[in-house]
Amino acid sequence: MKLISYISVFMIPVLILYILGYGLIAKRNIYNDFLEGAEEGLKIVWRLVPTLIGLMTAVGVLRASGFLEFLGGILSKASGVLDIAPELFPLGLVRLFSSGAATGLLLDIFKQFGTDSPTGLMAALMLSATESVFYCMSVYFGSVGVQKTRYTLPGALLASLAGMMAAVCIVQFLL
């Protein structure tokens, strides 16, 4: 374990030195290449800011209005049949939009049930096994200007559902 810790401390400096060395060997203007890359990165960020603001605002409004809890309440009718805590449904919905907001809900679940409880374990696995589908699609597709996403959204939603179901099944099987 100490070896891995020791290696991780030097990983970034070694990577930077490798890039600089490669640039010198290739006789590139490293500083100019860095500035061009930084300028391009800032242009991408500038194009993404409206999308990010819209997503953060939408998640904030949905969470503050109680809509996510309402929708989670409707979906939680199945929680008795599936032996799932009703608090996991809002977590699964929020996770589709925002990883940060889902982490906040996860911490609330940890405070209420504990980290080693079945509900806490299911919630942690759900966040580990899924992705912020709408955030990723808007950021990645928006940054390159993709207009037709084809089957990406249905596939991503299906994969997230499978990850959530797997989290529940794994914890129920282990406990």
Automatic annotation (TrEMBL):
Q: What is this protein called?
A: Spore maturation protein
UniProt keywords (A-Z) are: Membrane, Transmembrane, Transmembrane helix
Residue ranges annotated for the Nucleoside transporter/FeoB GTPase Gate domain, each copy included: 45-145
Query: Which source organism does the UniProt entry give?
Result: Blautia intestinalis
TM stretches of this protein: 6-25, 45-68, 119-141, 153-174
* Highest taxon, organism lineage: Bacteria
